[in-house]
């Protein structure tokens, strides 16, 4: 059997999930990997068959997307060319994690594909989202359209939605509480975070920054370059995680029984949806870093309530069922 696994390369969550899924897929046949996008700091251990520029957004420094930087890296003619030139008829199964080049190539060539992603969970109307409709609903539907859907979310909102994929490297971590808090807020610059977090006397912070190449310290705050192993070590020994409105990071922290606070990116609808779902579990959510931020942080630091989640290890079974159901006979 020949399998293509196409992965979105914007942000780290898609690649992190793929690190768990790729070895499982390799048990069923010859696996080719495709990545498109330009904004991930983590990578796969296995070589890529295809790598495309894709269609990515760029994180800003004030809590949202940098629209101008996103526009500058956009290359729609190349995206169009890649969609029309990707060879797909050789594959018995095409799996897609919110990756547009292969999804649209499949549609153009009338070849079925399977979503294995967090984003496809929004196909269900029962998946939480803000009451006010947002144009980003079109992105959920048309950014990487597929034939079949296998979704992941904090809870099972529909039959095709499973709880998060928690990587084996996270499940096998030895946890402790050394008193510090891990921070991953890529849409904010380090100076903004330092300005506020240094005010929390007696609290140690580990900021993982997209913008730093070497670690340094200012007072009670350490800043590290984003690194998978370093972040995992910090998180496993932390009291909690201060992060954006992503999915995999908060899910892993909750699994490790860490406190979580989320600050979804400004104007990023999916992150608002994620934060809403997490808030229903009891995760505190704030909308932005503003004049009230220090109060929110102090309230969170003083709250020792832990959230109980049940994220069983079902990934191998999900992959097995997917192969049996959707691969060519």
Summarize this structure briefly.
This protein has 329 residues and is an alpha/beta fold. The protein is built from twelve helices and 13 strands. It starts with a strand and ends with a helix.
What topology, given as strand order, has the largest sheet?
3-2-1-4-5-6-7
> In this structure, how is the largest beta sheet organized?
7 strands, parallel
How far apart the termini lie comes to: 9 Å
Please state the structural category: alpha/beta
Tally the helices: what do you get?
Answer: 12
Task: Give the radius of gyration.
Answer: 20 Å
Give a count of the beta strands, DSSP E runs of length 2 or more: 13
Beta-strand percent range: 15-25%
Structure description:
The protein has 329 residues and is of the alpha/beta class. Helix content is 34%, strand content 19%. It has a seven-stranded parallel sheet, sandwiched between helices. It has a six-stranded mixed sheet with strand order 10-11-9-8-12-13, with helices on both faces. Helix 5 (136-142) links the parallel strand 5 (114-117) and strand 6 (148-152). Helix 3 packs across helix 4 (100-109). The chain is globular and about 60 Å long. The relative contact order is 0.14.
Q: Any chance you could write out the topology, listing elements then pairs?
A:
Elements: E1 2-10, H1 13-25, E2 30-39, E3 50-52, H2 67-73, H3 76-85, E4 93-97, H4 100-109, E5 114-117, H5 136-142, E6 148-152, E7 161-162, H6 168-171, E8 181-184, H7 190-197, E9 205-209, E10 216-218, E11 221-225, H8 228-236, E12 240-243, H9 248-255, E13 259-262, H10 269-281, H11 293-302, H12 315-326
Helix pairs in contact: 3-4
